[in-house]
């Protein structure tokens, strides 16, 4: 089995810190959310083939108090989800020529009518279930999942100051012979 050369290093001086939010693998790249000391939200892309780092600014219209999360969009490309007020904003990164691209707002879901109770603070995005089109939201009342396609909201936990959620999907246990 061949091993990859991990001795090559890449540095980026961006005055940012990587969030402990879930990352996502899309194609040959890993994406992480990070926040700048002066510049706000952005996404760090690590190309696993070229061993290079690049940064993508979060959507410009995303002037919210909370950090969003990277996720796979409906087309399997890079997506971004965040809450502004009581609305979930779902963005897609559309790649243009070369390395350029732009964010497109794909969908806005009004959360106030979907939540079973009326929280005093806006919900915040704390995770996603990869491949399931499900977002985890926390309010001051409880933790909920939102199935994006059906817009079904379900309580899955008590409120408790969560920063992120990494859902347990499944595992494969080896069979003893």
Note the topology:
Elements lengths: L15 E3 L5 E3 L2 E8 L3 E8 L4 E6 L11 E4 L5 E7 L2 E9 L5 E10 L13 E6 L4 E5 L3 E6 L4 E7 L19
Antiparallel strand pairs: 1-3, 2-3, 3-4, 4-5, 6-7, 7-8, 8-9, 10-11, 11-12, 12-13
Pfam family, one: Beta-prop_AT5G49610-like
Protein name: F-box protein AT5G49610-like beta-propeller domain-containing protein
Organism: Dichanthelium oligosanthes
List keywords for this structure.
177 residues; mainly beta; five-stranded antiparallel beta sheet; four-stranded antiparallel beta sheet; 0% helix
Walk me through this protein's architecture.
InterPro entries: AT5G49610-like_b-prop. This is F-box protein AT5G49610-like beta-propeller domain-containing protein. Pfam families: Beta-prop_AT5G49610-like. Residues 10-174 form the F-box protein AT5G49610-like beta-propeller domain. There is one protein chain. This protein has strands at 16-18, 24-26, 29-36, 40-47, 52-57, 69-72, 78-84, 87-95, 101-110, 124-129, 134-138, 142-147, 152-158. The protein is mainly β. It has one domain. Strands 1, 2, 3, 4 and 5 form a five-stranded antiparallel β-sheet that branches. The chain is globular and about 45 Å long. The two termini are 26 Å apart. Residues 1-7 have low confidence and may be disordered.
